[in-house]
Known about the structure:
Layout: E1 2-7, H1 10-24, E2 29-34, H2 56-71, E3 80-87, H3 93-105, E4 113-118, H4 123-127, H5 130-136, H6 142-145, H7 156-164, H8 168-175, H9 178-189, H10 201-213
Parallel strand pairs: 1-2, 1-3, 3-4
Helix pairs in contact: 1-9, 7-8
Amino acid sequence: MHFEVLVEDQSGKKALDILIPKIIGDQHTFRVIEYRGIGRIPRNLKSGIEANKRILLDRLPSLLRGYGKTFADYPPNYPAVVILVCDLDDKCLKIFRQELFSVLNACNPKPETRFCIAIEEGEAWLLGDIPALKAAYPKAKDNVLSHYENDAICGTWELLADAISQGGANGLKERGGVGQEKSIWAESIAPHMDVAINTSPSFCYFHKKIRELI
């Protein structure tokens, strides 16, 4: 099976390039494609933004239509699937999933697709494996990590920054380069992660959906 994985930013790609092989092994292929932000689903399901802007949800209707046509030509013994991975942020999960499925259901043919939403943010998946986090950052602050509840709506990346970054989230914001720092976290923590025991429910959903497919 081949997996086309769409993510909203560079840090998501950095993490999944490391984590997906731990889930699928070497008998399957994958490609993680990063975008430059999440954006929003167009109201008329017609992408009105230039393709070179690479904003994930704005491009999603045309992306899924294209994958539907492309996947129809794949041989039956080597199917392909789209996995969309993005942050929930402050959206309602139920409504957001309904909007995503409305995009998929408008495709003819429809590509095999799974929607995997990180709650609240992708850093929740890193915080779902505290031993891995501590292996990458031995000086991580336990008094900060101990207050974290998995997949809580709490300002996830800020909490992680408070635990491992000099000056915490406020210091990082003052220095700038938040996106670059998130990529460093992903590259540092993901190699240590055990995908079978992550305590983030949204990561477990992602893991389960991929395992079901293969």
